[in-house]
Amino acid sequence: MSNLKEEDVQDEEMIRQRTLNMRKRVEEIMRNGATLVRESNGLPKAGADFELYNSFPTFNAFMKRSEERLNALMGKVTNSIGCAMRVPDVGASVEHYTECVIEAQDNIAERVATLHEALKKAEKDEIVKVPEFITKAGPTNNKTEAEISEAMKTFSANIGTVLAAKFRERREEAAQMIVHEKPQKTYNIIADNSVAPFVSVKHHAIEKRSGIVVVDDDESGRIGWTNAEAETEEEHPYIAEILNFKVPESQLESAEPKKFNALKNTQLTMVDTKEKLEALKDTLNSVTEFSVDLEHHEMRTYLGLTCLIQISTRDEDFIIDPFPMWDCIGILNEPFTNPKILKVFHGADNDVLWLQRDFGIHIVNLFDTYVAMKKLKYPKFSLAYLAFRFADVILDKQYQLADWRARPLRNAMINYAREDTHYLLYSYDMLREQLLKQDKKDLNVVYSECNDLCVRVYKKPVFKPKGYLTDLKLRFTFNSRQDHALTSLYKWRDVVARQEDESPQFVLPNHMLLALAEQLPRDVGGIYACCNPLPHFVKKLAGQILKIIVEAREVKLEKVKVTAKENNDAQEARGVMSDSMDHITSILKSKIDFTHTKFDEERGEIHIDKTEESSDVLRKDELQSLISVLLSSSIPSTEAMVVVEKGKKGDVKKIKKLVDELDKFVTPFECYQMMMITKQKQEEEERKEAERKRLEEGDKPKTLFSHHDAVVVRKPQFDSKLLNVDTVKVGDSDDTQQQRDSTMEQDKEPPVFDPSRFSDDQLMSKKAMKRKREHAKRNIDVSVVLGESSSSDPKKQKTDAELEEFNYEEADSSAFEKPVKDNNAEFDPFHQKYRLKNKSKTNKSMKKSSNRSGTINYKK
Amino acid sequence: MTTTIPPDLIARLQKFDQLITKIEDAIEEIDVGTDKHFERSAHEMALVDSMSMFLMDSLLWAVQATKGGGADKNEDLLIDLARTKRVTADMKAINARQDAPRINKTAAANFVRNALWEVPEQGTSTETAPDPPVKMEE
Known about the structure:
The complex is a heterodimer of chains A (860) and B (138).
Chain A: H1 6-42, H2 50-54, H3 57-81, H4 94-121, H5 132-137, H6 145-156, H7 159-176, H8 183-186, H9 239-243, H10 249-252, E1 267-271, H11 274-286, E2 289-297, E3 305-312, E4 316-320, H12 333-336, E5 342-345, H13 348-359, E6 366-368, H14 369-375, H15 383-391, H16 411-422, H17 424-438, H18 440-455, H19 468-471, H20 480-500, H21 504-507, H22 510-519, H23 524-530, H24 536-540, H25 542-553, H26 564-574, H27 585-588, H28 627-632, H29 652-664, H30 668-697, H31 733-742, H32 760-763, H33 766-778, H34 792-800, H35 814-817, H36 832-837, H37 844-847, H38 849-852
Parallel strand pairs in A: 1-4, 2-5, 5-6
Antiparallel strand pairs in A: 2-3, 3-4
Helix pairs in contact in A: 14-17, 15-17, 17-18, 20-22, 20-25
Chain B: H1 7-30, H2 34-39, H3 42-66, H4 75-99, H5 105-116
Helix pairs in contact in B: 3-4
């Protein structure tokens, strides 16, 4: 239950009332809007009356005026809620209006969606405040003049031509930016790519321990990288200073943020000579704070190369080109390590290390705006966002990934570089104020975190022979040959990179490395095929690569099992639990619902303040659940408590009976459990039975047969109704077969044979059939053949008396004159008549192509 | 050909005009400026925003009418209308939540307690336990 005071309750009531009023008003307005639409439908339409009425000046003027008013309304509505829209000019086309309106609607819809989400999540009576990022971000559609004009340019002109022009511009720029000679060569910057550990240089240190003399380098900045043998790699040269560092009071106090000067009013100094550098050092020693940023290159160098240092004070901007005076930059260490001067960075993690590595510059008294932004829980932590929020400037980030080694530096790049630091000091002021407002301790926390950044010591990357497990995303497991190739190539790549002072990625990109290891090409052409586009060093040292691959091919082929430990280590290094994921996909593919927690997937992990008492899951107020209701009324326990109405007596016996019944009652789940147990027992028993039986019986029935076995006499089974009375003797197997061929039926005793079911040719032998036919012919009753009389008569005559002579004269011989129709002659299933008719001398066998092959043509 | 605009059309045009005026006045009332708008509670802000969405669609419809109509064939507008409808429906649901009745704790407690009680029988045993303490949270 919330502990609200009287006033708060009243406030909430007020807000509730206000909301109710607002609802009424909103409903009213929406009703009016709907009526407006209805009325609009009643107005004259184009193609019907509209053109006619539009010819009337009054009508025309009225319509124009209405459009003006509606236009003004649109603008007003969107402005009042903070989603400004591109208001079309009066008289613009319907399409243009639609476009602008839809655009505005998109913005509003986005915000409404967020609000609805927040409202739905909230509890019933809670007054939901607008989520911070909506208010903090301010009007999301407030574009600066520059942006609007830029957008207008693109929209008004033909988009195609504008984009083509931009593309051309970029291409020309890129062509001009080619670095012809490596600056390391030009300016004689020596890099130590050896495996020896990195030794840092200490320029201005307070004495650490008495008895140990620390040899300082002199101010001229002659850095002897081998001189500082006394220092071990592990020790930070300024550890004493940093540990004893206390934030100056002035930095912890609240002060009015000092707005930056406009870019065009600020002097920019390009520092590329030793004298200018000295002057800069003096300037920096005289100020109380300055902002720093570095531009770094990592492609054409093994360890990395700082290409540019940008420094801004309150009044001036400086850009240092370190190449010409590489060894002298170290003199800047003085202001950098002065604990009284504040250095402002954005995202100093890497900058600190780069300064150490290249110039031996360390930092004491650092403020990192990135850390501050995270502490203040901004929606975005980028420098661009910072500049946008405080300077209302859109930083052109196209040069972020450009090659900064190029000299001379182009104006656009110089401009981009100085903007990175120009607004940083003002942003620092604003962030400091916000941190102090949020919580006095927060500023100290930020400083301590920045302190931790300063303590970091640069260490050279150590080559790990199996490093590819973590560095590369292996799509599948390699066999032993591929694994050997991969390991060897990985090492070779590193060696070449160190030698030539290039990055491994430049020598042989990861995907090409994997392709080579996978395919193990046999010749140089194959190597080139795997590496397309062909890197410079692959071409130059193709022979070495080929040698490695040939070696790998001779390795015995086995599947390499990545040990579980190696796998785990690799996965841990990537921060995931399985092979197929990395830290991005693990969030994307996660099936966990984050909507009710404070974790924002889009922004990633926010710094969770473990000191706070808050939990990630919103607790539902007890008002919403019925738990409290249940708690307030108690349930009678089985032992003693009996709930009764006041004044009436409780019946313990009845209650006991009830309780007993309840105990006897088996819940369905218990039934299921018991059933499962009994089923299991049954199965066990059955299995045991089967086992036992098998052991008892021993001999299994014969299931395999061969031709050595005696022939099995299988007696055919017939339906007893069908069998004949006359039994046929069933001989041994050979006779059986023959007899079965001749007659369909074989009989068994006692058979009942029904001859009427079968036809003559099924039952009788050929001879018997012939006999029967002859017999039938002799005994015909009526002859269908002409001249023949019934059989019975001639038979009678023959048997009775002598034969009467036949009188040929009286006989009708007309039948003999008629041509006898041979019915069978018409029977011509193979069309022989036709064939004989069309028989020609052509060699029919040659007509079909299938006949030709193999046919020897005897014709000469 | 008529030389004057028919009176019913004039009436319709006047009505149209009046409606625009009404909306103008109402907006004038509700408009408190961007900063104040951001200081509203989320519910109010959502109300005004969803109303604005609806209003924008209606205004566009009306503007199209001043140019001869045909807004019902304007596909983009119709799609947007569908989205606005969804938004206003969501808004209604959220409004309804505000109106929904709350649980009356005493009544609910009594209800549950009642369900657990049983009519005692006129029997031999007269053992009765003391009334269990009924805790009512406030």
